[in-house]
Amino acid sequence: MVNVAILGFGVVGSGVAEVLTGNGAGISKKADELISLKYVLDVRDFPDSPFAACFVKDFSVIEQDPEVNVVVETIGGVGAALDFTERALKAGKSVVTSNKELVATHGRRLLELAAEHQAVYLFEASVGGGIPILRPLSECMAANDILEICGILNGTANYIFTRMVQDGIPFAQALKGAQANGYAEQNPAADVEGQDTCRKLCILSSIAFGWHLLPEQVPTTGITSITLADEAYADACQRRIKLLGRAIAREDGTVCAYVEPHFISLQNPLAGVDDVFNAILVKGDATGDVMFYGRGAGKLPTASAVVADVIAAARQLERASYRPWQPNRPSSVVSSDQLASQWYVRLAEGTCSGERLTISGGKEGESGWITPAMTRPQLDQMLEGKQVLAVIRVLD
Amino acid sequence: MVNVAILGFGVVGSGVAEVLTGNGAGISKKADELISLKYVLDVRDFPDSPFAACFVKDFSVIEQDPEVNVVVETIGGVGAALDFTERALKAGKSVVTSNKELVATHGRRLLELAAEHQAVYLFEASVGGGIPILRPLSECMAANDILEICGILNGTANYIFTRMVQDGIPFAQALKGAQANGYAEQNPAADVEGQDTCRKLCILSSIAFGWHLLPEQVPTTGITSITLADEAYADACQRRIKLLGRAIAREDGTVCAYVEPHFISLQNPLAGVDDVFNAILVKGDATGDVMFYGRGAGKLPTASAVVADVIAAARQLERASYRPWQPNRPSSVVSSDQLASQWYVRLAEGTCSGERLTISGGKEGESGWITPAMTRPQLDQMLEGKQVLAVIRVLD
Questions:
Q1: For residue B11, is it within any domain?
Q2: What total of structural domains would you count in chain B?
Q3: What is the domain range of residue B282?
Q4: Is the pLDDT of residue B319 over 70?
């Protein structure tokens, strides 16, 4: 018998309760044991919830109940979530989470703590919502050296781009639409400024390369400055604008990781990933390119990924864990300034070396360009003194 | 210490030996134990192979060596491969394979045999080559009821379609090119007549639904009759021809499974899967559509999937297994004749109800049509007495 406690009864937490109990029989069969929801921790009251009997307000009830084997942390953030996760692991309980901020920031120590206490710490739902990615990367691709990870990791940003292109509406309006549809938070900063993508990239990179990459080491540019003119120029050169998180393993053992919008060519399988869908491209030295695609967020997709981890924890408590992450290696992180690529450049006036793009209805004097391959410092030198309106990296 | 024996030193077997030894240090670290290649079984001699010291010709050497924990079966077929797999499992050794014919035909019994002898039987490489699919489907999507599996599962067939469309060459010539490039066997029947897709679909379906679907229960149509005219009509209606294996769970608990070429719309994420790439779309009741994409065949991709299973077997011998498959359920398999859809029809002359397609350079009198949605028996009735040149199911 496996008893589960859910911390936080928000969107994901309530989804986990529903999936755990709604599909209960099937889930228990798959777990080879009976899985039962024992507690839900929340400061608020939910007198009408079907789980009303499970609610508690004091974490120590869960911490001190030896019958609780698996704790689901869906509080979010790095405050109470960190405290409760540490205490649960120290009490020998396994913890499953969708909290990307906590994993990206404290994952290494929490994995270590889990191992010390014969528990597991699992977080498949923290990247890509319901898309299976962390376990496939960690287990199924274990015979590969991972060469690169490149992903559309934020559904809100991708939805905004899709609306801009398909409906011809500017960024601000597309963002409002995303909020109205429930795809973006009222405070959308983490989505549109790239931090959400950055955290997910750190988790992927740490699993792929085996040492903890920290968010503050990843230069991150969001999408707030992208205009309809940029989308028109992208269209003019058969490309799409996508916000990508990339982590590239270099031959010297260093990793170049960054988050930026990109012009990507229509031949790239990521170009066709629209709306709130996410996709993660993984290059292995043996398998070549493998891509994982699906809804990157949403109550039920995310909850089902959490519950799959609960089942894994229930089936094989000591063996389901990710391999431990080695400590962060400051000297192994290299700047994306060293990564040469072509660039899209939009100028207020004047010219630039490279291929000139033409669009209909462009602003008087403005021009769009695709430069030859060079690094960002070389580009900045070339553009010195020019009135630069936009610079976006090109990826074929 | 985990000692591995490889059965069959063909393309995949020699690739496994390379991946196991070439990336050896990394692999042993991931397995938390030292993994070592002890034997290679082959009837042929390979005096110049770097693994020459490992070769044996008599399986009983492997069977009787208690140091061998994991046997890799890459012989293929259901003759010696079945015999050796049974004997290895009965000796308590775990078996890892890429042999889709053996798994599709005897998977249930071999999983049972493995469980009886505290061994595991793993076959990630049997579907999708290096694409992680069976473990994600079995574990990461465990909290879902699977509603449908729909996949481009044969790289050779997909390569042929891509060449027909992109180079404008007929089927026979595209097949010859595939053979010249090593993408098709000299006897390409299993690829172009659909059996290979059928076997992979049976494995996916058995894992998704939990009972053994057998190849002889799956109506299978290959691609040998597809012409350039059909490709032109597909293009005329914004669709692509792809050979799909589909298994659809119906509300009454039955499964409709079949293999056929389809006209699929360009909006379908499978439409952009070209060349030798494979992709598998899985619909879960909670996650929605999830897609797995990558190279479906090839020496190193397949070998790396085999080696990942060897690592899984080494890490967690008793827990890495797939859940057992229930016996086949003849009454749970329903004919694709019950599945209504639109149809593409090409007639030698005359007309048909539906939307007429126009192509340039079509044959005098011939016409292409997209019919309203109906079942195949209804379609056949409608077409009675007409000179029908082609019928292909439409999937949007």
A1: yes
A2: 3
A3: 134-295
A4: no
